[in-house]
Specification:
Residues about 1-5 have low confidence and may be disordered. About 0% of the residues lie in helices and about 65% in strands. Strand 24 (about 270-275) and strand 25 (about 280-285) form a beta hairpin. Strands 2, 3, 4, 5 and 6 form a 5-stranded antiparallel β-sheet that branches. It has a 4-stranded antiparallel β-sheet with strand order 1-29-28-27, with no helix packed on it. A 4-stranded antiparallel β-sheet has the order 7-8-9-10, with no helix packed on it. The protein has one domain (about 10-335): Methylamine Dehydrogenase, Chain H (7 Propeller), CATH 2.130.10.10. It is mainly β.
Length: about 325
């Protein structure tokens, strides 16, 4: 209890400080897979219907207002795509879309009006960052029943190098992110083992638990990262300690009977979100003690893949699809 006359220490909490409704863009379905990429001017947002459909996208500026084609753009309609991921690599927008057992990788123009196919690869999973740095090259990481592979691209013209097999074991989930000039990859096997590998350094850690639906955020300044995932109906968190005896460190339950975890780093704080037992979206940040300070965005109840947690325009955003279509909520941290 604070003594009389003492100034109480302010408690920092997450709040929604702005909302946007992108009603000019009509989603193909409420059950979508989304990808959000921060760009120099705002963000590019991509979607495909989970039941299969065209790959579509639209753009917002730094204020969260739709720019360009206000109805959105169809990038591909040549297959029934069911999953999408996207990133910026070598200052180019790269989009990966999955149809059946093939991953199609494209370079996309800044205004989404044109694309150039880099290739099609065997697999059903691709990292949330589909192309990552690997020393002096760029690599696309793809996973599926045949294992996990890495395909390199180099130079101005993205010349493709031979594909390397990282594991031949079938994977049930996979994700990847950038750590400095390396690719950090996590996958889960049907034997309920969680693998973490840094590609260029050839460091791999294995733990005997499943890590399905995993996402990674890395903080290169502190040689650390955060892995969030689902295991037996709960949302879990494992800290990553680069250079540790096992780089997959502790294992903490974040939420019981929860799903669809996301994680992102804003340069100062690690943010985590998930869907709770009621289907409400919960979002917050990890404080200096390692505790998740979170709040439920009551009424925001997207389908499991129909939302993303993304950092763009110097802010953390929750982008989702609901009854009213596409929308965004900008998060802030305030003293309470």
């Amino acid at each position: 209890m604070d003594e009389i006359g003492d100034d109480p220490v302010p408690r920092l909490v997450p709040v929604v400080c702005d909302t946007r409704s992108w009603s000019t863009v009509t989603p193909d379905d409420k059950d979508l897979d989304l990808a959000v990429v921060g760009t120099r001017t705002g963000a590019s947002i991509f979607s495909v219907a989970k039941a299969g459909g065209a790959l579509r996208g639209f753009q917002v500026d730094g204020r969260g207002e739709v720019v360009g084609d206000r109805a959105g753009t169809t990038l591909r309609a040549d297959a029934q795509y069911t999953s999408v991921s996207a990133t910026l690599a070598a200052e180019r927008l790269v989009v990966a879309a999955v149809a059946d057992d093939k991953v199609t990788l494209d370079l996309v123009s800044d205004n989404l009006a044109a694309h150039h196919e880099l290739g099609r690869f065997e697999g059903t999973f691709v990292g949330d960052m589909p192309v990552l740095p690997a020393r002096d090259a760029r690599v696309a990481i793809v996973g599926g029943a045949l294992g996990v592979t890495a395909t390199g691209f180099a130079g101005l013209f993205w010349n493709q190098s031979p594909t390397e097999t990282l594991t031949k074991d079938a994977v049930v989930s996979m994700t990847a992110t950038a750590y400095r000039d390396d690719a950090m990859i996590a996958w889960s096997t049907d034997a309920r083992q969680c693998h973490l590998q840094r590609l260029s350094s050839r460091q791999e850690s294995v733990r005997n638990f499943g890590c399905e639906g995993a996402r990674i955020a890395a903080d290169a300044r502190s040689n650390s990262g955060t892995l969030v995932y689902e295991d037996q109906g709960n949302v879990m968190r494992t800290d990553i300690r680069v250079g540790g005896e096992s780089e997959l460190a502790n294992r903490v339950q974040l939420a019981e009977l929860a799903s669809s975890p996301r994680v992102a780093f804003d340069g100062q704080r690690t943010w985590i979100s998930y869907l709770n037992v009621h289907g409400d979206l919960v979002v917050g940040f990890v404080d200096e003690h390692g505790t998740l300070i979170s709040r439920a965005l009551e009424g925001t109840r997207p389908q499991p893949d129909a939302y993303e947690l993304a950092f763009f325009a110097d802010a953390m955003w929750v982008v989702s699809v609901g009854e009213l279509g596409f929308g965004g909520q900008r998060m802030c941290v305030v003293a309470q």
